[in-house]
């Protein structure tokens, strides 16, 4: 939790919210998805993300189209601008993390690599 707070505090003032990044990240990794699919994958209810979806669409970071199979449902797709916004955020966090890791020794970095793999397995 402290690490997440530290990374968030180092972000630029105009950075996207965590929920917006979650949505963009999901769409970038998994491709076009319904609101329900995004919410379920992230452990949230679609209603909780309604405003996030609307703001991302209004900003041109995602587009919403009708599902060809079920016309009642919308499909969310990340736009080029959305991908660029996500990349900028990731680059910013990567730069901070690289600076923080620069003070560690090789053994310490290897321990972190192992821990990251274990955490990834636990998250799945």
UniProtKB/TrEMBL annotation:
Which Pfam family, giving just one, matches this sequence?
MarR_2
Source organism superkingdom: Bacteria
In Gene Ontology terms, what is one molecular function of this protein? DNA binding
Keywords, alphabetical:
DNA-binding, Transcription, Transcription regulation
HTH marR-type domain location: 1-121
List the InterPro entries hit by this protein, alphabetically: HTH-type_Bedaq_tolerance, HTH_MarR-typ, Tscrpt_reg_MarR-type_CS, WH-like_DNA-bd_sf, WH_DNA-bd_sf
* Family matches, as PANTHER family: CONSERVED PROTEIN, HTH-TYPE TRANSCRIPTIONAL REGULATOR RV0880
Q: What is this protein called?
A: MarR family transcriptional regulator
């Amino acid at each position: 939790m402290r690490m997440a707070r530290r990374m968030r505090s180092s972000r630029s003032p105009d950075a996207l919210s965590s929920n917006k990044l979650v949505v963009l990240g999901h769409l970038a990794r998994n491709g076009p998805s319904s609101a329900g699919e995004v919410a379920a994958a992230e452990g949230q209810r679609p209603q909780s993300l309604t405003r996030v979806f609307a703001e991302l669409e209004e900003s041109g970071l995602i587009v919403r189209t009708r599902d060809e199979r079920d016309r009642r449902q919308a499909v969310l797709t990340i736009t080029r601008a959305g991908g660029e916004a996500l990349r900028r955020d990731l680059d910013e966090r990567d730069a901070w993390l690289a600076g923080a890791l620069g003070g560690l020794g090789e053994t310490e970095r290897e321990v972190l690599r192992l821990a990251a793999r274990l955490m990834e397995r636990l998250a799945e």
